[in-house]
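Need tokens for this chain, all 315 residues.
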Amino acid sequence: MGVGVAFALVFPGQGSQSVGMMQAYAGLPAVRETFEEASAALSLDMWRLVEEGPAEELNRTVNTQPAMLVAGVAVLRAWRASGGEEPTAVAGHSLGEYSALVAAGALDFADAMRLVRFRAQCMQEAVPEGTGGIAAILGLEEDAIRSVCAEAARGEVLEPANLNAPGQIVIAGHRTAVERGMALAKERGAKRAMMLPMSAPSHCSLMKPAAERVRERLEGIAIRPPGVALINNVDVQSPPDAAAIRDSLVRQMHAPVRWVEVVREMAARGIGHIVECGPGGVLTALNKRIVPDAQCVALKDAVQVRELAQGLGNG
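Here are the structure tokens for all 315 residues:
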């Protein structure tokens, strides 16, 4: 990467998971070691879940969230083991914010695993499976999406959930309302509208009961001030202390992920390289659309981890 280069590490959340997603990192010992630590923390074979699935099981919120946390931290540790420098800033998309907190030294990994599993259980219990939905809408801007949500809700919950990139917004709420929203969005000119493989409608007001349960659990979790700047989802700010981090994590559960603003804030801070730390490359595609002038790359396999950690592959 080069000494003195301002760069950020960013971590994906739900939606980036796939069975076999860690095979690309074969040959990086830190990856399996991190999965072993995660499995011990949860008394659950996380490697088998990620490598063998089945997809239906991996896509359950209670499994997806810890799986994506361990995946991000595993790639982070492989980056460090390969000689990668510490970033100027970190951020994570939705659930990925927990990986970012681990990367910043604010949260212990084992605590994060248990907390994320509990968070996912709270989310799933807040909205019975099949009751909620979450969908991506491509080709409409934020104002049009807000209008669609207001019109299609019909007394149910339907809200913008992830402001991912210009023209790419996720909506969440009651499943029937989401289906109406998808149809209306297409009528209004959306290029695509598709349900996402998530079993709980994140980042909408249906998650407020779950957020209150997480608030109570967070009080018993040790959190330290981040060692590097963490730009959060809910405020697009860097919470300075444990109390602010706890509060932002609670509010994040029922508020939109402001990813477009997070990435633009990185650029405003002089960060010219954004490195995605985890499988899938989903965030890198978004980041390139948000800040076309930045160098956006993904640590998508063992080769990328080693080359970028040693300062290569910046072309």
